[in-house]
């Protein structure tokens, strides 16, 4: 059957056979009957590239939004300035040190949950999920972008505590900085996870009194955990912010790195990983 007769009856024309040694990638040098080579990068590598591109795009969007930059940098400094007018001496050192973890945690939760919700409602996330990529790659991209923002915010806050407000702690600034960054990453992980359960930005903000405020009330910020009722102390033991505040309080009173310090640090890091894993598991293939 030639090409004209094939076209006449509506069939696809038969491609002519190519000899061995042809440059056509579908016909390798091993022979016409050999299976064709796979062309293009594996899906896992494509997903990694898409994740990196997503991280760069989100960081660019955050950097070009003056309100987001102000919330990341200016708002924590203004709040710490208010605290310096309310407290003085060791009392200010103690409160400001804890706020170095509380402010990044709360602000990053808000920014991450709202920004991720916009990605869902605008259809950007749904389009990305149609590409050969995995949810874990996308969460990695979003997590990387927001983690860079969280680290930058924690760095600014801790630097201002020591250089501007003159806070003195037993542990060094590097230790405090590490705890503050990890606490901010906790806010990122919880924000990514909770954004899956919100349909509007208002619903995302409503997650704040459900997820964040109970942790602030029970973390030992207002009442020592040892003085709480038994059932409240049990609830406090399963909230990650309790361990973050405990780490910061210990950094303010002692420079020794004990086993309890490493235990609390491991629990906090585990909660961050768990929150990011839950965010990847709750990522839907379709937005409504």
The beta-strand count equals: 0
Extract low-pLDDT stretches.
3-41
Task: Determine the number of helices (DSSP H or I, runs of at least 4 residues).
Answer: 11
Percent range for helical residues? 55-70%
Counting helices, strands and paired strands, the structural category is mainly alpha
Number of domains: 1
Write down the overall mean pLDDT: 80
Spatial gap, N to C terminus: 51 Å
The biggest sheet amounts to: none
Helix-strand pattern, N to C? HHHHHHHHHHH
Oligomerization category of the chains in this entry = single chain
Radius of gyration: 26 Å
Report the β-strand fraction as a percent range. Answer: under 5%
Shape: globular
What does this structure look like?
This protein is 69% helix and 0% strand. α4 runs antiparallel to α6 (135-163) and α6 (135-163) packs antiparallel against α7 (173-194). Residues 3-41 have low confidence and may be disordered. It is mainly alpha-helical and 288 residues long. The protein has one domain (42-281).
């Amino acid at each position: 059957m030639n090409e004209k007769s094939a076209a006449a009856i509506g069939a696809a024309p038969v491609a002519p056979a190519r000899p061995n040694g042809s440059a056509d990638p579908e016909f390798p040098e091993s022979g016409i009957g050999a299976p064709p080579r796979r062309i293009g990068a594996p899906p896992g590598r494509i997903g990694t590239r898409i994740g990196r591109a997503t991280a760069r795009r989100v960081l660019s969007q955050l950097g070009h939004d003056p309100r987001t930059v102000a919330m990341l940098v200016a708002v924590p400094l203004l709040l710490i300035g208010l605290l310096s007018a309310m407290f003085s001496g060791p009392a200010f050192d103690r409160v400001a040190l804890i706020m170095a973890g509380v402010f990044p945690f709360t602000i990053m939760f808000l920014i991450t949950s709202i920004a991720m919700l916009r990605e869902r409602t605008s259809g950007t996330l749904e389009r990305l999920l149609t590409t050969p990529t995995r949810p874990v790659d996308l969460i990695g991209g979003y997590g990387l972008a927001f983690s860079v923002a969280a680290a930058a915010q924690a760095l600014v806050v801790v630097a201002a505590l020591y250089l501007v407000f003159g806070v003195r702690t037993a542990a060094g600034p590097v230790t405090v900085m590490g705890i503050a960054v990890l606490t901010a990453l906790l806010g990122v992980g919880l924000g990514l996870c909770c954004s899956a359960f919100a349909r509007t930005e208002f619903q995302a903000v409503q997650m704040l009194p459900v997820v964040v405020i109970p942790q602030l009330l029970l973390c030992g910020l207002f009442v020592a955990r040892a003085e709480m009722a038994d059932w409240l102390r049990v609830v406090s033991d399963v909230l990650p912010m309790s361990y973050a505040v405990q780490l910061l309080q210990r950094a303010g009173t002692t420079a020794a790195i004990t086993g309890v310090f490493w235990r609390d640090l491991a629990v906090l890091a585990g909660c961050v990983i768990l929150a990011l894993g839950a965010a990847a598991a709750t990522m839907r293939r379709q937005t409504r």
